[in-house]
Amino acid sequence: MGFRYNGNAFDRHFLPRLTTQEIKTMPKEDVLIVLPVGAIEQHGPHMPVYTDTLLGEALLAEAFKYLPEDAPIWLLPSINYGKSTEHAESPGTFTLSAQTLMMVLQDISASVASSGFKKLLLFNTHGGNADLLGMMAREIRIATGLAVYRLDPGSVHYSDSFTDDEEKASGIHAGDVETSLVMAVCPEWVHPELALREMPRFPQSTSFSFRSKSFAWVMKDISLSGIAGDATKASPERGEAMLNKAGPLLAEALLEIATFDMESLKE
């Protein structure tokens, strides 16, 4: 985990390294504050429960390598715990309730606003957080006046060229992509000899499908092992290649968000 507290993300863009006086006097009008939101939850028999938060930190560390040194983008520490109630029956899952995570987000965003900042990005690396963060982004906007954005790293499609169609359709948890990434970032935390392949049989109808969120599920509904995907295909080399591809794509997304003006939406 050599990336942690090293590199551009932490040497130049980690907000808590500043003093209160430095934060008070810094220009804030165009600053984007990045708040990573992860999770601590089961990731099958072969992967650490810290996977989602770990990968959020690693992906951001990679992205910040490609930002200009003077980019007005500052990183907050991760919220390590997410809403992982779909995995709550598995040992090692440490979840917040939806209500608690909502309150944590409200309180941190209020502090961002009271410190004088205008823009907040929720950087999410856990699928179980996605709907709640989408809803909370608007609530935070209403309550604080902040311009609030959300970015899930998968939205830049950094892993698409490394996975087959089956993995794209069903590999949503602890499969090829996540296992390869953790192998690259923290190989001593992975037990590849325990990796499994388990592909949920999701409905393929256009009007009733997993991707369109047509039904509620918890992990035991779709998997016996806690895996949805093929972890046996994973390799550290492909994980490193995915990180290398993700870095500039995420940096571009961060810069685009940082320069976006909400007023531009109106005629």
TrEMBL record:
Q: Extract one GO BP annotation from the record.
A: riboflavin biosynthetic process
Which keywords appear in this protein's UniProt record, sorted alphabetically? Hydrolase, Metal-binding, Zinc
- Signal peptide positions on this chain: none
Cofactor(s), by name: Zn(2+)
Highest rank taxon of the organism: Bacteria
Entry GO MF terms: hydrolase activity, acting on carbon-nitrogen (but not peptide) bonds, in linear amides; metal ion binding
Q: Does the keyword Hydrolase apply?
A: yes
The answer to whether the entry has keyword Zinc is yes
- Show the Pfam families listed in the entry: Creatininase
Q: Which family does it belong to?
A: Belongs to the creatininase superfamily.
Protein name from the UniProt record: Creatininase family protein
| Source species of the chain | Paenibacillus monticola
